[in-house]
Amino acid sequence: MADRVPSVAELAAELLGRIGDECSPAERSVLESLASGHHSHVHTGLDTPSFGERLADRVARVGGSWGFIISFTLVLLGWMLLNTDVLNHWGLVFDPYPFIFLNLMLSTLAAIQAPIIMMSQNRQSHKDRQDASVDFETNIRAELSIAQLHQKVDLLLDKADVEPDGRRG
């Protein structure tokens, strides 16, 4: 006798204890694949990042590193030292104290770097949400598969007339 494949509504009631309309989209997707008998693997569907996205990721990775912070601090200290002591001897100071040109460059860098880093963070957040969704769907699949196996074991135990603790009934 061939086993009848249960419907999505039957699986929802049997395995989740709810009607099909109460299921989340991820649960419904898993139930549909179980009902069809097709156990597909979940794919993230992430696209290949564009040049701008790769650049934003790189800027965020470099700009948020200790190497960048230390080297940038050294450049700033060098700039200030150069414009106060070294070039002052020859009268060649091009950005005297209070370093207005340096402030302009720092403001420009911050104005450009902040949105680029935010683009990278938004992209990473999107990837994290997709990964969490895939993990959730995988967990639902595992839970439903375990529930199905549990039902099959219970059915076998009933057919063999064996109690759940292993004693014959």
Structure notes:
- With 169 residues, the chain is an all-alpha fold.
- The protein has helices at 8-16, 25-36, 51-63, 66-86, 100-159.
- Helix 3 (51-63) packs across helix 5 (100-159).
- 8% of the residues are buried.
- The chain crosses the membrane at residues 63-82, 97-119.
- InterPro entries: DUF1003.
How do the helices and strands line up, and which of them pair or pack?
Blueprint: H1 8-16, H2 25-36, H3 51-63, H4 66-86, H5 100-159
Keywords: Membrane, Transmembrane, Transmembrane helix
InterPro entries: DUF1003
Protein name: Putative membrane protein
What number is the mean pLDDT? 83
Q: What is the global morphology?
A: rod-shaped
DSSP summary, beta strand count? 0
Structural class: mainly alpha
* Annotation field: number of helices: 5
User: Can you summarize the main beta sheet?
Assistant: none
For the record, the count of structural domains works out to 2
- Radius of gyration (Å): 31 Å
Strand content: under 5%
Amount of helix: 55-70%
Note the gap between the termini: 26 Å
Low-confidence stretches: none
Element order: H for helix, E for strand: HHHHH
Brief overview, please?
Keywords: Membrane, Transmembrane, Transmembrane helix. The chain has 169 residues and is mostly helical. The protein has helices at 8-16, 25-36, 51-63, 66-86, 100-159.
